Structure formats: structure tokens, C-alpha cells
Sequence to fold (898 residues):
Amino acid sequence: MPKLTVNGSEYEVDVEPAMPLLWVLREELGLRGTKFGCGKGLCGACTVHINGRAVRSCILPIASVGEAEVTTIEGLGTAEAPHPVQEQWIRHRVPQCGYCQPGMQMSAAAFLAGRTSQDDMAEGPDSLNNRATVTDAEVAAAITNICRCGCYERIRRAVVDASKEVS
Amino acid sequence: MSVTRRRVLIAGAAVGGGLAVGLAVGLATVNFHDRRAHQAADLEGDLVALWVQIRPDSTVVVLSPHTEMGQGAHLGLAQIVAEELDIPWERIEVRQAPVETGFSNGNVIQGFVLADQKLTGFFQRVVENAFFLGGDLLTMQMTGGSTSLRFTGWRSMRVAAAAAKQMLFAAAAAELDVNVTELVAEDAHVVHESSGRSLSYGALAPIAAQLPVPQSPVTKDASMYRHVGKSHVRPDLADKVFGTTEYGIDRDVSGMQFAAIIGTQQIRGSVVSIENEADILAMRDVAAVTIVQEGVAVVADNPWRAQQAANAVKFVEAPGPNAAHDTASLRALMEAALDDDERMTEIMSRGDVTTQTGKTVEASYFVPFLAHAPMEPMNGTLWREGGRVHGASGGQNPLMTKNFVMKTLGLTADQVAFHPHTMGGSFGRRAAGGDDMHNFINQAITAWQAAGEQPLKLTWSREVETRQDRYRKQAVARYRGVLAEDGRPVSWQADGYAEVNIPDDAVTAYAIPNLLQRTVHEETFVPYAYWRSVEASIHCFFNESFVDELAQAAEADPLQYRIDLLPKGHRLRQTLATARDMSGWQAGVLPDGSAMGVAAYELFGSACCQVARVSIIDDKPVVHEVWCALDCGLVINPNSVEAQMQGGMIFGLTAALYGVIDIEDGGVKQSNFHDYRMVKLADAPRLHVKLIERNESPGGVGEVAVPHLSAAVANAMAVLGKRPRELPIIG
Ligand code: FES
Ligand code: FES
Fold:
């Protein structure tokens, strides 16, 4: 039976290898914060982290997850200990219907984390302060999730502000 | 504000102690034509909604008949009630009203329509639909038409709360044996300042509950407001950030199975037979396969398995009567209708458009069918518990959905319980204006029965969502205008193939001496639903493009041209001037090769103007920045209003740039977000919103910002030499 590590806990699941991670999370593990929007990798509502990288779980067969660490919105932060992205999401009052927001925040968090570690390697710690704040264009290029309610203006501001903290 | 005799304020002891105040509406004197009068007479005396409850601990509960789809209605209702009761913000709580006829808001809507002749247009239409499509107002718990704050909140709950406060004060005056004028409200207490004595609202509530209910309570003066106009934080914010909001799709019932749909190719098609039933039933954990409305449902123990199996179903579809139809053939029918004067109905006529001479401008426009595409696809859950059938789903009209379940299963109201969920978007899709909008609930019921009435959740794939939606209509229009020597239009003729339920939303606001607007409209087989901003999404593009063409022909600044054409004192004038100032408006091509375009339109009691700055790159528009000036009357919550403007503009931009549902062989061509495209961050312009303060009653907000950008972007492109007259601009 495939083993799965989600938010630091190990699970065994008895499903077909082709079943996408999304449905394993939602229905086998009961982690329903991750959303279904399109099933084709087009909208990002199902975004989770695999070893820290943002992945669209609706098109990721469980067989290809293997030993990797999966993080979902339930593992990103809590009201008591919010992730910097979540702090900014609250400060900017981003959500409207809220349905896209778990995936949106997972994308934002992975983008900011990936950016910091890349800079680290490429330019050394000294450059971090200069490069800490992301630009609107970088955010737009990195986050391709759909928000039908149209919260983009606030998403952009929240990500830029979160970038100051994540670094 | 006084309450008319048809609407009576009522009060009583709340369950668990305390005071409950609400409205009762008697409809015995309905004067509409017979059918409605007859139905309304049956309703008399039954229409009670106790919305505002003051509890023994001095907290206040507001029971909202409106559901949340992201618009922040609950927040606004809470602010209005907290204001009128004069209580600290921490003391108020909003709950979803039970899905029972006692909390129908059709009564309120009807009461106001009858009592207040100013209410026309969309609202009237909603009420009529409730009668003609849905049966009666008792099954209506409608959120739509930007009505929540305007009608339930401002005109009903506010008055109920004012009455409650007056009763608490009367009770306190009697208890303290002082004159009521010596009392003030402070921290949910009634305080007698000179003696320092006070009583809490909670302690006063049971005494107040015995008092007569004032029918014309005095509402607070705007100068005293401390909650209204403040950006209180919406109560669902944290849940939505931490992913703990439970949408319909997240409903969990023990032992639940899952249904998925494979839809017919034809719109509203029907399945004759399933060819490989045994193969499907042999797939892993598949429990049932059955023909349902518009397709085949497969039930399995996991939604993905159910969808995989559904996708593998081979079925025979009945030949449809519309198989020969596509977008082009429907458009040809519309164009032919416009060629035929006989078929046209006048919706507005003044002066004489036939005798004017001068420079003539002619143009034709087209807008396509559109789907709603909420991020959360349609879904519904059914199970049995405690001797009743339970249903759960997100909906803009949960009471009508409950009624649909009752009707379909042949059950009575006490045999069905319905649990409304917060919606992952709706935009009209979940408005449930009639049985047709409940196709997904109907499918769920059939599948649930086929699978032995075990708990079941049906969830649509995005493909089914796109193809079994009900759509914003396709429309065409032809315009002819004549300019006087000074460039002002003396004549404006508009012929459209478009439904016009709201003449105010269709006819241009510009003061043109000779004007004729005609329409022809017949239903096509493509099913129709309200779509955020309803008909304004069509007419604003037509009218605001055409006036821009006139300005261009007159070689005038198109923004100033609009201001000059509006009657003195018209609300749109100020929105135009505000948008001009905030955008640093410039007519003509800007130094960087971009250009600005403008559109101004009034809808749902609010006036809005948007200016877009646009470049054309690789033949396509790139929208850099949008400035939005809004006059929505009294602003209840500025932050919420700004959010709705931002969201509305993106919704409108998606329609402008990408939105199209094509009909092909009698079915819908598009299927998912790759071909029904949405604006994303990369093409989302910077948005600037400015609210024009006006202490009048609140106008609508949720739909108001949607229609403008199609025209504003097209008008900017016209400056750059490429005026689009058909939507979508990119596709
Ligand atoms: S649900 Fe996975 S990308 Fe849309
Ligand atoms: S908040 Fe509704 S889809 Fe993004």
C-alpha cells in the first residue's frame, strides 16, 4: 500500500496508483481545504506543496508522489501561528468567496520560499536585503491561479508585502 | 421612516429568553392581475420573519435570509443592525436564517414592491419570476439583484432594530421610573446619566417583549453613525484564509457515496440507453449507473472513481431538435429579426428619429453567450437522518432549492431539511430562479435513488459545469445616430435583439432630443440565467460604445462629451468628473503609445464610471490600469465596497477579453478553463477605486462594476485605430 507523508504525518492509502493526489487528500484523508476547480491543472485551486514546491494536485497521480513531503493548506499555518502569507492575506482582506484562496496562498508561499532560497544560492546572503521585495511583474509571472471573484489587486499587494517577511 | 400598513413590525419573546423583532407582511390587498392576487391571498398572515434577537447576555443575533457567495452581505447586515441598536461591534453575531418559510424574504421583497412604487426593474422581475416560475413567494429566500443590503438590510432590518431599541428604552423608562428622553445607550445598556443607574439590554429584553411594537420607529441620524461607513472586518475572513470554510463540496456525511456526470452533447439533451452498463458496474467500487437529466450519472465510493467511470460510459443520445444550430445560425436568426420592423417592440420613444439630418453614424454590435464559471462547481448532497431527507448545497435561494427537493420527492416541508452552504462563487448560477436552474439537484436526486438512497454527493466536473450551465444571452444591436452642426447628437436609434426587462438599464441616460429604442426578443433553445449585472452587461457595451463613436465622429473629448450630454444633476456626471480627475484623463494617444477609454453607466441604484488605459501589443489589447468612480449612495462598509468594485471589474474584463460560449451542433463547444478563459494575475490591471460620499440610502454594489470595461477597453482601442464591436475582443 502506498505510503504518504502529509503535513508531517504518515498515512497508508489503498487506492489506484493513478488516483490524483487531490482526491486522496480530500476523500481518503479528509483534508478538504485543498479544492477542486477544474481537474486539468488549469486553475490552481488544488495547489499543494511537494517538497516545498507548488504542484497542482488534481493532475498528480498518487504513484508519483512517493516519499515526498506533501504540505496542504492545513499544514501551512493556523490562526495561532499563521504563515506570513496568511498574515498578509488577513491584513489585505483578500478573500471574497474564498474558494481559490487555499491554492492561491500555497502558490504564493512556494513562490516566495523558492525565490529566497534561489537568491541564497546564487548571490549569497548579502543580496537578500536588496532583493527581498518582489515586484508586481514577478508575482504575475509566478502565480497563474484563477480567482473568479477577481481578488488579484489584493493578492498582488499581499504577496509583495509577504515577501518582505519571508526573506 | 414609517412602515406601511402592509408591513407590520412584530415582536415577541425569543426562544431561550430575550426579545425578537421582525416584520410580518400581509398581502391581502394585492392589486396585481388575477393569478398573482390569488396566490398572494393564500399567503396572508403567514409571513413572519423574526430577524433581530436580543439575548439575555445582551448579545444580538441577526438571522440573515441571505447567503454568502463572497459579497459580504452578512457583514453589511450586522453593521446596519449594530448601528440602529447602538451596540458595540463585538456584541453582534450573524447566523444563516433557517431554511423555512418563516424566514422567506420574498415577503419582504413583495411588501416593498407593493408599498413603494419606485421599485421597478430587476426587482419586479425577481418577484414575478418567483410567482410564475417558482410557484410562490413562500419558497423564496433570494440573494440576488444586489438586494441584500438595500432591501432586507436598509429598509427592513434597520427599522426592526430601531423598533427594538425604542422598546428597550420604553422598558427602561418604566423600570427606572424616568422620562425616556433622559436615557442614552451605552455598551448595550440603557443608561440614566443623571442618576448613574443603568439596565442591560439583556435584562430589559423580556420586559420589552411585553410592550406594544412601535410601527414608525425613529431611525438614527446619519451624523450619529459609528458602524455604518466603517470598514469592519467580515466574520468569515479567517476561515477563508486558513481553509476551514465548509463549502457544499466539502459536506461530509458518514457512509457517503459520490456521483459524477457525463453530459449529453446537446444542450438539454436526453439519453436513450447506456450501452456498456455491465462494464461500468465492474469498475472499482462503482455502485450504480443511471440515466439522469441531461446525461448519465455514475455512483462510486470516491469522486474521482465516479468521474473516471462516468467518462467511460457509452450512451445513445436522442436526436435533438437543435442539432443543426450553432452560434452563427442563431446570430443569423437574430439579424433577420432586426431586418423586420414588424417584429420590433418600442421600449422608449421621444421626438422623431426619422426626420433628422446631419452627419450620420451607424454601427452594429454583438455579444456572445456567457457561462458563470464559479470556482466551486455545482454540487449537492442528500441523505436520510432522523426520519427526514436532508439536502445540502450552496445556493442563492436555499428555500427554493428545498422546495424543489420536496416537490421532486413528493414530500412535505417537515419531511425535508435543507442546509445552505457558503458558496465558492455563484454570479447568478446558484440563483435558482426556477426548476431549470436545479438540473444538478435533479441529477443528484435520481442518482441517490438509483444507489439505494445511501448518503450521496454529486459533484460536477468543470466540463459539465461549463456545458450544463444556463447562460447570459447572446445579443446583437444596430445603432444609428445623427449629429448636429455642433457635434451633439440630435437623434439616436437603437434596435436590439436582446431581452429588455429593465428599460432603465437598457436605454441610454444621455439627453438626446430624438430617441427610439426598439427590441425584438424570442427565447432560443439555449437556456438562460441571470448573470452578474444581468442585462446591463449587454446594453452598457452597446450604448457606451456607440456614444463613444458619436464623440469620435464629432471629434470631441469622449469624457467631456458624455458630461455635456447628461442632464444637469445626473449622478453619472459626478462619477465621470471623478474618474477624469483620478485618472489624469487624457484624450488621444498618450506618449507611450497607450490610450484611455471611458464608460459610465447606472445600474441597481448606483452610478459608476470607469476609465481604462490600454495598449495594443501584437494586435491584442493589454489593459494596464483602471480607475473606477462609484456613487452607491450611502456606503455601509468602504472596504467591502472596494472589494466588490475590484472583483466586478475583473469579472467584466474577463467578459471583455475572453468570454464566449459557442454553440456547435446544438451543444456547447467550450469545456474548461483552457477554452473558457479567465483573466489571471498576469493580465489583471492595476485597479483604483474612489467612492463618492452621499448620505442617501445604499445602492447595489455586487454587480455594479461589471458592465463597464467591455466598452471602456473598446473605446480606448478605438483611439488606437482598432475599435472592436464584437465581444470577446481576444477570444
Ligand atoms: S483543480 Fe487542479 S488545477 Fe484546477
Ligand atoms: S475568492 Fe472567489 S474565486 Fe477567488
Notes: The first strand of chain B starts at residue 7 and ends at 13. Confidence is low (pLDDT under 50) at residues 1-6, 25-48, 107-140 of chain B. Chain B touches chain A through 63 residues (CB under 8 Å). The pocket of FE2/S2 (inorganic) cluster (ligand 1) is lined by residues A 36-39, 41-46, 56, 58 (CB under 6 Å).
